[in-house]
Amino acid sequence: MNMNIVFRRFMTGGLIFLVALVISACQTSDEHADHEEHGHEVESEMDDHEELDETGVVHLDEATLLEFGVSLATAGPGDLHREISLPGEVRLDQNRIAHVTSRVPGNVFQVMVNEGDHVQRGQLLAVIHSEQLASTKSALLEARERIRLAQSTFNRLQTLREEGLASQEELQTAEREKRGAEISLLSTEQMLHALGIEDNRIQQIGTDPSVELSHHELLAPFDGRVIQREIVQGERVDEDTEAFIIADLSTVWVDARIYPRDLGIIREKMSVNVIAGYGIPSVSGTLSYVGPVVGEETRTAIARTEVTNPNGLLRPGLFVTVKVATESFPARIAIPRSAIVKLEGKPHVFVGEGQEFMAVEVVIGMETDTHVEIVKGLVPGQIYVSNNGFILKAEMGKGQLGDGHGH
Fold first, then answer.
1. Contact between residue 358 and residue 352 where contact means Cβ atoms under 8 Å apart
2. Which residue range is the domain that position 271 belongs to?
3. Considering 285, 310, 329, which residue would you say is the last residue of a domain?
4. Digitized pLDDT (tens) for each residue of the chain, 407 residues in all
5. CATH number at residue 270
6. Number of domains making up the chain
7. 179 and 114, same structural domain?
């Protein structure tokens, strides 16, 4: 066979193979391009369902915000109060506590109240049967009768004297008798006052049949609660036997302990916030007293605050934390510490409105236990997430995970 013919056939076959290879490569490339395009469409479709888009915006609807307790606030100026935390204890207001004693020896005839009962001023607490009291009341009646007779004798002699039928000496003697009876009555009434019997009850002795001479009534000195009862029916009591302790719990004292390092800072009239915990609302007040001495055992001084206690939740004996505001600093923007969220170790705040929120990095200035100053990153009037920002942080984490999986 001619060599030229063989060579031409070889070249023709090679060219055909090369064309077929190029066509196959083009088809493979088109198929890969179609697959890649389809992959991007799937990825785009996934992105449409993520909570975080490529601009870093977290989408949460109003229902979700309410469900997780996410609160919004408006950035603005405020005062930061530097505070000192002190341990404290709720105590009875010593100006509103009374120890009710018998004041006369005798036996407990009847007890009308129990521990925990609410009482009003003048309410009957118990009745003591006392022979000594009966004797004193009898002396009162005798003194009244003496005055009646002495006054009658004096009036009669005064008339006779005017008619010249009685001497001046007889009239003076009658007057002395009258004055002696008056002094005896006054002395007896003062003895009854010392036993805690009020004027209106004294006036009823001998005129009101329901008032027993031997019965001594123990009455509530003011509105309050019975916090202690020490007597039972039939028990023998003496003059100094403590029967009840009555306390007005509408106000209480909170005594905090000042450590030596803070003695030069804390002063009277400073504002305080009393935190009890256990679901009890915190209450505010001012320091009314700072102790001038340091206790030998505790090595601390007392800082006292008188606070209102309308619901009785601040029970005496309860341990509390007392936060004393020692300094105040104005801030162009002050936000709660709960608004700060750490992302990659840096402080951020979620800002936005409606259903779109974005984390922005902020620079913190002055700090307190509850609030921080923002010197950069927020502007006045800007809406931000004031608490539970971790919910948005979690949604952001879901979005970043989804983006990584898609690529």
1. yes
2. 83-93+249-329
3. 329
4. 444 443 444 444 444 444 444 444 444 444 444 444 433 443 333 343 334 333 468 888 888 888 888 889 999 999 888 889 999 999 999 999 999 998 889 999 999 999 999 999 999 999 999 888 778 888 888 888 888 898 888 888 888 878 888 788 888 888 888 888 889 888 888 888 887 777 777 787 877 766 677 888 899 999 999 999 999 999 999 988 999 999 999 999 999 999 999 999 999 999 999 999 988 999 999 999 999 999 999 999 999 999 999 889 999 999 999 999 888 889 999 999 999 999 988 999 999 877 889 999 999 998 887 899 999 999 999 999 999 888 888 888 765 444 444 44
5. 2.40.30.170
6. 4
7. no
Q: How far apart are CA 171 and CA 272, in angstroms?
A: 73
Query: How many CB atoms neighbour CB 368 within 10 A?
Result: 19
Tokens of 183: 């002094």
Q: How far is CA 242 from the centre of its chain?
A: 32
Number of neighbours of residue 80 by Cβ within 10 angstroms = 20
For residue 242, the cross-strand partners are 101
Separation in Å, CA 348 to CA 61, 159, 295, 390: 21, 104, 46, 11
Is residue 235 within 8 A of residue 107, CB to CB? The reply is yes
If asked whether residues 256 and 313 sit together in one domain, one would say yes
Residue 197 and residue 266 in one domain: no
pTM over 0.70: no
- Residues 255 and 299 occupy one common structural domain: yes
Query: Looking at the domain assignment, is residue 14 inside a domain?
Result: no
269 and 289 in contact (C-beta within 8 Å)? no
